[in-house]
Amino acid sequence: MLRNIKSDYLNWIILIGILLLLLEVLFFNGGLIVTFILSISFIYLGKKWKPRFMGKAFFWIGWIWLIATVLNMMTFRYFLCVVLLYIIVQFFQSQKQPREIKPVILEGNFKAESEPYLKRQKIFENKFFTSQQTPEHVYEWNDVNIQVGIGNIVIDLSDTVLPNGEAIISIRNLVGNVQILVPYEVEVHINHSIMAGTVEIFQEQEQRVINETIVYETAEFESAEQKVKLITASITGKLEVKRV
């Protein structure tokens, strides 16, 4: 069923579920965390003390307690309603303009300790809600390594000069779309891990994936002078790699 839900819509469903869970824990059911800890502790002790009778009793009490707690949660009822509504009606696609992120490198400075090294300024701040913006101008390249919570990311490689060798882009996010714009002369290796979402690479047709790791490499990647290795991991969202 998840394969038929548009990635943007699925992002909103999960985001609302996360917010509802936070509200439930903070305002409506403060003992929920304690209940989870106790039920998981019972399960753990039960597995540790098997096959004794006390171990079996703890194990099943823990599972029954955990399942009963989940069934009584508002968040569980919300997701159950979403599933039932999906069976009845078709969700419409909602398009959003992603925020464009382009790395900008500030001047590095040397700092001598036991031995000299070059320390570069950070490109991005790790934030749960991405609100980072960069100027619309040519920038100096530096490898990208970011982790964000919720939001869309666009990295345009046409506005920079990639060095000879392998450039690295590593992106880890919970919910959101990732778009990478790659010049035609640059070879690419893609390693994408996703729980539920869509993938569109170059001219390939968009495909829906669930709990998969996708590895893609252009034909001349190994011998190319300029190449990019893209490593992404996400719970839900869309990965799009395009030539520009």
Automatic annotation (TrEMBL):
Positions of transmembrane segments: 12-45, 57-89
Keyword Cell inner membrane: no
All copies of domain Cell wall-active antibiotics response LiaF-like C-terminal, residue ranges: 128-241
Record-linked InterPro entries: Cell_wall_LiaF, LiaF-like_C, LiaF_C
Name of one Pfam family that matches: LiaF-like_C
Membrane recorded as keyword: yes
Domain of life per record: Bacteria
Keywords: Membrane, Transmembrane, Transmembrane helix
Protein name in the entry: Cell wall-active antibiotics response protein
Organism of this sequence: Metabacillus bambusae
